[in-house]
Amino acid sequence: MTTLYELTSLDRYLADQQSLTVVDRVSQRHDQGARGLHREPIPLERPSAGQQYAFEVDLDACTGCKSCVNACHSLNGLDEDESWRSVGLLYGGGTTTPWLQTVTAACHHCVEPACMHGCPVNAYEKDAVTGIVRHLDDQCIGCGYCTLTCPYEVPRFNQRRGIVRKCDLCSDRLDAGEQPACVQACPTRAIRVTVVEVAAAVEAAEAGAFLFAGGSPAPMPTAPSPRKTIPTTRYVTSREFPSDALATGHFSVRPAHTHLPLVFMLVLTQLSVGAFGVDLALRAAHAPSQGLSNAVTALVTGLLALGVSVAHLGRPLYAFRAVIGLRRSWLSREIVAFNAFALLAAGYAAALWAGAGSAALTVLGGVTAAAGIAGVTSSVMVYAVTGRAWWRAGATSARFGATALACGLASVLVTSLAGGAPATVNRALGALLALTCGAKLAWEASFLRAHSRSRPPGRPDDLGRAALLMTRDLHRVTFARFLAGGAGATLALMVAASGGSGALPTALAALALATVVAGELLERALFFSACTAPRMPGSL
């Protein structure tokens, strides 16, 4: 048998470190008269009414060794680039009293899980007894919406499988009386599973905290507010955190995923609704309109948008499931509304072709427009409910509404010129298009001017980070967006200043449509890639 004297220096050092972090620490606390040193790693009894399972992390014991990460990865058979637990680092205190703290994080099994409420296919369930939030892999279609709604970025999209997966607190092991992988692997017993009172978790969340430093509730530095989802994980430490505590990587601002299928889907659906709405407005004003051409344009672009959106799914063959979550998911409502709009637009076009009466067309057109507006409103809410500042409801409504109006005007301008509408109508459409594009560009430029500098100095907020991305990493996309939008406005002005009829204005209008749509596609790409949000220390 190998003795300590036969070990290498490195072996002796590792043995000493293991002893120092467990045996000596417990022995020292025992000598000091501490009680209750032993903690069960898992509860001995199941939760009762008003309770649920939760992680508890002793930050004083966490060394950042990442044994929990490795154990979770191995035991759950995760892919090479997949992780359900992370370890981050907080720092602060300045040069005179430097302070470091490692933080291990996984799913918080929230009281009000945003991942479950936003899922369009009901691929999440919260156990009524244990409170564990499980992901149902077989039900998932891979839309990835839960990765946006969860403020802690817990669900992770698995590219190879085409679905999202997440921590389930090793529920099968808990049912068998075994510890979760991360709990069992932690050499310092910094992680355990405990039973918490749901009311206490709600109270802590309302106080803006799920960290207890020095016995008092406190916010976790740089982490999202717990008020939205009421996480149940409890972080405890005997130390007070310094006021300047930040997570490593806090100042690292990187572009997010662009989600190209969603970029095209959003712009095309808004073009479809905008074109239909502008045509209805012309008819309501008793101005000559190319009703059948505009209705067909709205129908074709709407169907194309719905087709493109399927490319965003990891499992596109199961796209039909996306209406299951209609009761609580804005994504399901968006899909239902736009499908209804496409069907109604087809009926409206058929009614026009058949020469239906004005009264019937007015009613059918109004219902179709209402479905389109409901679809665009649902699109706004899909992103607004995530709570990200860049996607707040007011700004997103302005973006999506202006896109619908600009693209709709550009589309109707082309069909109006091609159909030989009166010059006065064409010139008015061109002037209104130029005004809309110019106003939207001015609004976007004012945002960049207001937020491109760090606020407070050296610590940009989420909107400041978006502006920094647009003027730094994404400056080429930003420049191209303003160039295309400006070109579209200029071409629309040229149409308005021309005779309003003939081959040249028609060609200018076609170019205006192309550049306006290109500019809106670039703006929508920035909508995704410039978005940042608070995150747990250690999040990807």
What is the element layout, followed by pairings?
Elements: H1 9-21, H2 23-31, E1 51-58, H3 67-75, E2 86-92, E3 99-105, H4 114-118, E4 124-126, E5 133-135, H5 146-149, E6 156-158, E7 163-165, H6 171-175, H7 181-185, E8 191-197, H8 198-206, E9 211-213, E10 216-218, E11 234-237, E12 246-247, H9 260-284, H10 291-309, H11 330-354, H12 358-384, H13 393-418, H14 423-451, H15 462-471, H16 475-497, H17 503-529
Parallel strand pairs: 1-11, 9-11
Antiparallel strand pairs: 1-8, 2-3, 2-12, 4-5, 6-7, 9-10
Helix pairs in contact: 9-10, 9-12, 9-13, 9-17, 10-11, 11-12, 12-13, 13-14, 13-17, 14-15, 14-16, 16-17
What report would you give on this structure?
The chain has 540 residues and is of the alpha+beta class. It has 2 domains: 38-247, 2-Layer Sandwich (Alpha-Beta Plaits), CATH 3.30.70; 260-529, Up-down Bundle (Formate dehydrogenase/DMSO reductase fold). The protein is 50% helix and 10% strand. A 5-stranded mixed sheet has the order 8-1-11-9-10. β6 and β7 (163-165) form a beta hairpin. α9 packs across α17 (503-529), α13 (393-418) packs antiparallel against α14 (423-451) and α16 packs antiparallel against α17.
